[in-house]
Fold this sequence. Notes:
The structure holds two protein chains of two kinds.
Chain A: H1 2-20, E1 25-30, H2 40-54, E2 58-63, H3 76-85, E3 90-93, H4 99-108, E4 113-117, H5 121-124, E5 131-136, H6 138-152, E6 157-162, H7 167-187, E7 196-201, H8 215-224, E8 229-232, H9 238-248, E9 254-256, E10 273-277, H10 280-291, E11 299-302, E12 317-321, H11 327-341, E13 352-353, E14 359-361, H12 369-373, E15 382-383
Chain B: H1 2-28, H2 35-47, H3 50-75, H4 83-98, H5 106-132, H6 138-158, H7 191-210, H8 212-222, H9 224-229, H10 234-261, H11 272-282, H12 289-303, H13 306-311, H14 316-345
Helix pairs in contact in B: 1-14, 2-12, 3-7, 3-8, 3-10, 3-11, 3-12, 4-5, 4-6, 4-10, 5-6, 5-10, 7-8, 8-10, 11-12, 11-14
Amino acid sequence: MKRFLVSLGLSALLLCPSMAMAKDLTIGLILVGPYNDKGYSQAQYEGGKYVEEKLPGAKLIYLDKVNPADRPGLTIPQVVDDLVEKGADLIIAGSDDMKDGIREAASLHPDKTFIHVSGDDVLTGKAPANLGNLFGRMEYGKMMAGFCAALTSKTGKVAYLGPLINEETRRLAASAFLGARYAWTEVLGKKAEDLQFKVSWIGFWFNIPGVTTDPTQVANSFFDGGYDVVISGIDTPEAVTVARQKRDQGRDAWAIPYDYALACEGQGPACIGVPYFNWGPSFLRQAKAVQDGAWKQDFEWNAPHWADINDHDASPVGFMAGEGLTAENKARLDAFVAGLGSHEINLFKGPLNFQDGTVFLKDGEKATDEQVWSLPQLLEGMEGQSSAK
Amino acid sequence: MPRNLWLERILWILAAPLLALALTVLVALPSGAPPLETLRILVLGGLGSMTKFGQVLTVFVPLMLCSAGLLIPFTARLWNIGIEGQVVLGAIFCTGTLMPVDQGGPWHIALALAAGMLGGALWALLAGVLKTWGRVHEIFSGLGLNFVAMGLTIWLIFGPWKRPGVASMSGTAPFDPSLWLDRMGRLASSWTALALACAGLALVAWLLLRTQWGLGLKAVGQNPKAARLFDLSPRRRMLQAFALCGALGGLAGAVQVLGVYHRLLPSISSGYGYTALLVGMMASFRILPVPFICFFFAVLNVGSIQLPLQLNLDSSLSGVIQGLMVLSVFITQGLRSWLIRRREGC
C-alpha cells in the first residue's frame, strides 16, 4: 500500500510539470499560392505566424504553392503525410481546391486535427470527425468593396475580376454587386438600371500561363471598355497594378484588390481599399482548442468584429481604406459599416431575383446562411456567367 | 591491359556524377544553399521513410512507363517528344471510360487502363502518320499535339465534364473510391501500378533485344533506305513503334488518373513525359540504366518538397540538378569520344 502511494505520488510529480507547461503544438499550413503573394496565401501565412507568436509551444510549418501547376505530381494527402512526419498536430488546408484531398488525408490520419478553410464538408456531412471548416464572412468585405466602387466610379461601370466559378465566388461577386447597388441607389440616389456590373472569370485563383485567362489582359480590357473600377476576386494583385498603369497614362482608373490587408500599400490613389482576411484570431482559437484537447468539429463562418473591423486581434474580416477613397466616401463607408454591424442594413433581403429572372428572395424575405453560402446563380442586374457554359 | 580498360571505364562512369556534383555546388552556392546538405536532404526526402518511398514509387511508375516507351521509337531514331500529350490523352480516355459509372470494380479499372493505352496509342499514331505520310518531323508534330492535348483537357474540364455549377481548373469531380487503384497498405503507391511498370519495361526489353521485330526496327533507324530494300517496311514499323510508345504513355496517364489524382486535372501528366525524355537521353537510350535513372529522378522529385520545408529554398532547384546530371553525362561522353578519336588519330 505504501509502495503504491509512493509510486502514485511520484507519477503525479512526474506528470505535473508536463501538465502545467503548454503542450507543444505544431501547425502544418498548406498554402495554395506563394507565401509572399501579397494576397490570399500571405494572409494565411501571417495568420499562422500570429499563432506562433501568441500561443506558447506553437510552431508553424508550411508548404506553399500547393497546386498541380506549381508542384506537378504532388497530391494533398502526400503533403499531409510530410507535414505529419514533421510533427504536425493540426493541419490547415487553405484553399477550396484542396477539398477532396484534405478529406482523404483526414480519413488517413484520424489522430490528427484538420481544418479546411473555405470548405463545407461539415455542412454537407462528408467530413470525417477530425475535419472542421473555417471561413470568414467575406460577404461583408465584398459589400464594402462594391459600396466604395460604386461611390468612386465616374462612369457607373464597375467590373469584377473573378477567379473560378463556384458557390463561394458567386456569393462573393453577388455581395460586391449588392454593395455597389446600395451605394448607387441609396447613397447617390441614382437609378439601379444605370449601374453596370460585369463579372469575368479567369478560371483559377491566380494566373496559370496557358491554362487560365490572363488576369492582366482581362483587367486591361475592362478599363479599355469604359469600366473605371475593377474589383478583384482573385488571389493576386494584377487588377491594381493595371489600374496604376492606366492612371500613369492619365486615365481615371481604380481597383480594389482582395485578401491581404497591406495590398494597397505603395499603390497610390489607384487603390480604393481592400477587403481582407485576418486569420490570426481564428487560427489561434482553433490551435488553442487542439492544444487543450477541447477541439470539436464545427462549421465556423465568422463575421467581422463590428466594434472595429480592423482590430488585428479580433476581426477575421476587415476593410482597409486606400488612398483612392476620398474623405467624403470614407465617412459614407463608416456609416455603411455601422449599418451592416447593427443589422439595420441587410443586403441579402428581398425582393431579389436570380440572373435568369427567377425569384431568389420574395419581398421582405431575408436569406438564410445556407442560401447565401450556396448561391446557385449570380443575381439579376449582374452581367457575366453564372456557371460554366 | 583489360584491367586497365575496366578501370578506365569505371572512371568515366564516375566522372558524370562527379561533374554533376561540382556543377550542383556551383549552382547552389549563389542561392545560399549548402550544397551537400541540399543533396542529403533531397535524397533523404525521397528515401527517409516508408511513406516517402511510397511517394517515390508513385512518381517512378509513370516515369518508368514513359521512359520504357520512348526507347521503342528511339530504336528507329524517332524522337517521340509527343509522349507528354500521349500521357494526357491516356488520362482523358481513362476518365471518359469511367465518367458514366458511379461505382465499379476491377473490371472497370482494367477497362479504363486499356482505354488509356488506346488513347495514348491513337494520339501517337497521329504524330506517326504525320511523320511517315506527311513528312512532318515528329518533334514538331509531337510538340504541337502536346499543346492540343492540353487544350483538350482544359476544354473538357470547363465544358462537358465540369462539376455541377462549377467552372474551375481544379479538375473533374473525383471518382468513387471503388474506381481507384489499390494501395500498398498505407503507402501512396499501388501494386498494380508497379506491376504494370515492370511489365512495361520487360515487354520493351524483350521486344527490342530478343525479337526479329526489334532488330528490324533498329535497321529502320540506322538506314531506312536499306531497310526498304530489304523489305522491312519501315513505315509500318515506325507506326508500330509510335503506337506502342503511345500506349505505354497512355497507360501512365491512366495510372495518374486512377492511382494518384482520382480525377482529371489540367496538369495530369505532371510533366513526366518530358522528364522521361531526360531519362532517355541520360541513359543514351539503353535499357539497363533506365529503371535506375527513373528511380533516382523519382527520389529527387519527391525529395524536392523538403527544400522549401527544411531549407526555405525553392523546390525547382531539384529540377536544375536533374538537368545538370543529364548535361554532365553529355559532357563526359563527348569528352570521352573526343579523347578516343584524338588517341586514334595520333
